[in-house]
Amino acid sequence: MEHYNMNLTLKVWRQKNSQEKGKFETHRVENISSEMSFLEMFDVLNEKLISEGKDPIAFDHDCREGICGMCSMYINGKPHGPWKGNTVCQLHMRAFKDGDTIVVEPWRANAFPVIKDLVVDRSAFDRIIQAGGFISVNTGNAVDANAIPVEKDNADKAFAAAACIGCGACVAACKNSSAMLFVSAKVSHLALLPQGDPERKSRVLAMVHQMDKEGFGACTFTEACEATCPKEISVTNIARLNQEYFRASLAADK
Amino acid sequence: MLDAKIPEGKLENKWTDYKGHCKLVNPANKRRLEIIVVGTGLAGASAAAALGELGYKVKSFCFQDSPRRAHSIAAQGGINAAKNYQNDGDSVFRLFYDTIKGGDYRSREANVHRLAEVSANIIDQCVAQGVPFAREYGGLLSNRSFGGVQVQRTFYAAGQTGQQLLIGAYQALERQVALGNVKMYSRHEMLDIVMVDGKARGIICRNLVTGELERHFGHAVVLCTGGYGNVFYLSTNAMGCNVTAAWKAHKKGAYFGNPCFTQIHPTCIPVSGEYQSKLTLMSESLRNDGRIWVPKKQNDPRKANEIPDDERDYYLERRYPAYGNLVPRDVASRAAKERCDAGYGVGTFKQAVYLDFASAIQRYGHAEANKHGIENPSHEEIKRMGDEVVKEKYGNLFDMYEKITGENPYEVPMRIYPAVHYTMGGLWVDYELMTSVKGLYALGECNYSDHGANRLGASALMQGLADGYFVIPYTIGNYLADEIRTPAIPTTHPAFEEAEKNVAARIEKLMSIKGTESVESMHKRLGKIMWNKCGMARNEQGLKEAIEEIRALRKEFWSNLRIPGGINEYNPELDKAGRVADFIELGELICIDALDRKESCGAHFREEFQTSEGEAKRDDEHYMYVSAWEYKNEENWELHKEDLVYEMMHPTQRSYK
């Protein structure tokens, strides 16, 4: 792979905290290698800001290998940037060329208030899981792991849904800030497995209720969520969620 | 002499006997007992969930924005368990045996046996929680093989096993949060242990959003704060992984066990430049099918595909015919370093070796052709069908490699090089996982316990969950049973006041340095010293130099550091500064420990002590002990020894030839 260096203009959202108003700030970075990751380019920028006695840009990140779900930048109008099935930390600078201007914003959604600059509060997702995104089994009660066979096809579909990293890109991509892809991934993961069956109805009702309470928008099925999901979670999960929800609502006796 | 409180009796009965005789706490009393759990990885999330289920009042802390982000999530390959579902001769004894041997006879038999015993329960528990492990068409669980082992005992969920296990534990934890048994504090970092009358009774932590310091009381404190690989700056750890919680405990009296046992993983994507912030692992499972080689000619300028097979040196297969490419990690890493140091390395910096799937693609392609009854398949057909099989097995890893390097590993061999990955050392704990501080426990990677001088693949997840789900719920009861008459201590107690004052003073001190160099830059410099002089190979002179260099760096750190921003706000640079300050102190202790251990064992390779074939040479007569270091004051530690007594195993020179 041939590598090259580039000079870039960055327009980055700066916001001191959740109360104050934010604004875009323009920065230049020079001699950025095409082999760097996008976050390493931000490291370079932050080192420069620190050396100039300025406040570095706050952004969430941790594993830098695309799995923890912490990184969350809205790059040139797309959550996680231009590559498909990708997180910001795995986006590399060869996606850009010399002279480019790159606009970087935080996730925008009422349910994800800004903490500082590009850092947002996604604890709403934790509360949705608390509402029912689990199987109620205490430690030590389990039967042998092979006692209940699971059809491979269902196990694979459950795995594909469970691959969600909880980053919130689906919400950021949606014009309604809907969390349907996130919620449907968890509902599907657990509904597709025999272990999740006993709580199937109560789970979907409780999780959807909490989702609404957190202020996420409704789903109008534009599929923007699937298009930007770093784990390429399918919108068929949303269809399954709707099916589960109707089934549970019709059968509810309380 | 350290007392590990190992129960009497035969090895295979110890844990059963312990559980049958340890003290219990009745449910009404559990509701009044408070436990602090720091960290929410596999060990922390499983411990907090299991203790909450029992009815204790639990407070759980993590520095990330959600407990689901902890770095256990990045584990790729799998989790071991002695289920013997494959009928290939596995058993609790064999898992125990492989782990002790893999650890080069530097771990405690009783702990490792218990780990092997509970391993099967973990898989049952995870399946019950809905962890979607890989399955066969019959609906039963699938297994694969890992390094240093001759059976198939590894359970997996594609290349994302850690993620699926952690989500399972996270969901169990969130369920307890919803039930009110656990209170969750995310974006909080523990900055000190509070001691009252010689017992751990709480923590001081900092709210990372507001910068405020908080006091929290607990009848016991459980640390599950992971490993310290980031002392090397570049590692496969997440950016936030740190030693701070463990180090604060160490300075409050918890001994640090075998700090020099740090694992270098053989298959990582090589460093590509100065700006690099972390290294990415390519799962050990790739060594099931990939062949590792370098050119036979030094400094060969040709591209990999231009070098004919007879001019390639498959050095692992040559040196270790019995295990071949699946030798344990320490052995594979050293062999790669040896070739690169001798001038046979490849890539831009000549610091890489090839991991090649061409022959696996051919082998699978032929098998597919056979399956489909295609006679005389063309070269292209074989390649296409072989690619498909490899894609199904390792697709996500190949994609990740391509994203990072821009090269297609289906066409050209991957370039890999060893990188820091895991730390076997950690807080010294006894059989009950209690540190040398009463009421303070350490679980998972942050303790020294089960992996000796080298950890086998797919065993870290096993240990984290074993400690959290199946060990601590019993052992902590044995301690808390005597605490039922202790009322909650108000956080206005002088011990809390004092601890908070010290934490605040240290933060003030960091902020008042107002020098010129950034935290990141200092951290990089520490990493270079550690990697060059205390990395894959160590020697007396280098270690002595490293200690001096680290001491000098520490002085520079405290006189020339620049932290922007303020204290009472969201300030990641300040968070990092505190962590790097602790890493610098730890780095010194790692080198002191490495200098003290005048033998080679597992991941600790002292160049002075090797066999004529370049293998690690242990000295069981003088070093069959756990080094447990007690902090005295700056630059001063006292060594305590826990002798390792082997009842069942007969330590021999480890051979994978």
Give me the CATH superfamily of the largest domain in chain A: Alpha-helical ferredoxin
Q: In which order are the strands of the major sheet of chain A placed?
A: 2-1-5-3-4
The pLDDT mean of chain A sits at 96
Which CATH class of the largest domain in chain A is shown?
Mainly Alpha
What is the global morphology of chain B?
globular
Distance between the termini of chain B: 37 Å
* Number of E strands of chain A: 7
Runs of chain A in which pLDDT lies below 50 for 5 or more consecutive residues are: none
Q: What is the multimeric organization of the chains shown?
A: heterodimer
Q: What helical percentage do the residues of chain A reach?
A: 25-40%
Low-confidence stretches of chain B: none
Which CATH class of the largest domain in chain B? Alpha Beta
Sheet with the most strands of chain B? 5 strands, parallel
User: Which class best fits the helix and strand makeup of chain B?
Assistant: alpha/beta
SSE ordering of chain A: EEHEEEEEHHHHHHH
Q: What is the residue-averaged pLDDT of chain B?
A: 96
Shape of chain A: elongated
Task: Please tally the helical runs of chain B, counting DSSP H or I stretches of 4 or more residues.
Answer: 17
How much strand content do the residues of chain A show? 5-15%
The CATH topology name of the largest domain in chain A reads: Fumarate Reductase Iron-sulfur Protein, Chain B, domain 2
Total of helices of chain A: 8
